[in-house]
Each structure stands twice: as structure tokens, then as C-alpha cells.
Amino acid sequence: MNKQLVASAALAAVMAAGVVAPAQAAGKEKCYGIAEAGQNDCGNLAGTHSCAGQSTVDNDPGEWKLVAKGTCHDLGGLLKAEAKDKYKQNKG
Predict the structure, then answer these.
(1) How many domains does the chain have?
(2) Could you tell me if residue 53 is inside a domain?
(3) Which residues are CB-neighbours of 35 under 8 A, at least 6 positions away?
(4) Of 62, 59, 54, 53, residue with least CA distance to 82
(5) Superkingdom of the source (predicted)?
(6) What pLDDT, on a 0 to 100 scale, did the predictor assign at position 88?
């Protein structure tokens, strides 16, 4: 009984810390280059910010939004590896 209680408490702590992905993120993927200014979901490839809503340019290839898995290219976006390649090309 004690082990179960400890395990439950540990799981609750991990979930509260945000280590477990939210249920709404299941079946989604990061899609780069489709976010409007101020509408990105989190940090960018350049590392200039680490929070949602801090993008300053529409369709920046370094900014991303979560979209339904398999729809990124349909929306005109890039998956992470493609976005990294484009970012490197634009930078150098």
C-alpha cells in the first residue's frame, strides 16, 4: 500500500512539473514556418526566446505551432529537420 501511495505521489509531482506531455499534444507535431507574429507555441530555433507568443514575424521558419500529425506540409510548413536546414541556409 505504501509503495502505491509513493508511486502515485511521484507521478502527480512529475505531471505537475510538466514533464508528461499534455493530452492535447498527442497526435500532433511541431510545424515550422506557419506561425503568425505572436502566435508561436514555444521557443524558436534561433534560441532568442523560449516562450509562446514571442515571435515577431509572420511565417518565420524558426517559429512553430502544434498541428495535427501529417498536416504540416499541407499548411505550407516545415518539419523540424527541414526548418533547421532552411535556418542554416538563411543564416550562412
Answers:
(1) 1
(2) yes
(3) 41, 55, 58, 59, 60, 63, 64, 65
(4) 62
(5) Bacteria
(6) 79
